[in-house]
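Question: Now follow the chain.
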Amino acid sequence: MSEEQNNQQQENQGAQAEQQFIIERVYVKDISFEAPNSPAVFTEEWEPDTSLNLNTQVNPLGDDHYEVELHVTVSVKNKEGKTSFLVEVVQAGAFLISGYPQEQLGHLLASYCPSNLFPYAREVISNLVSKGSFPEMHLSPINFDALYAQRLQEEQAKAEGSTQEQTEKV
């Protein structure tokens, strides 16, 4: 191995050693359960119409520390369109992330962190629905990588569209 290759290998190992991803804390930040049409909803045939809404929010805390919030809202309506129940959970985590290039940091915060938080949110939702005396609810796993890639494509399309508009105006 040449000296140049050896130096390159040492630099790569040094860069990898500096990268850190640590989940410092996972917690429920906000929680809400509403069953506005109880107890009448329990006397009706159970034909739920379920909608799921997901959002994430990143709050930089300084010194390579970040809070990532996963907002999950599940709304279930009966066949007449009346709300059977509504669950809103903000599952959050404190993360130490350092030594990553900006594009990798963006991916970690927008995809990897929410992927780690989602099972906790799913458990909280399942427990709340059961305590509300409704049938068990198990949310399917979510591919946050695919959602992140889709968002990047949408942002790129918008950027290309605005560049095209500026060219047309000139």
The longest strand covers residues 83-98. The domain at 20-159 is CATH 3.10.420.10 (Bacterial Protein-export protein SecB).
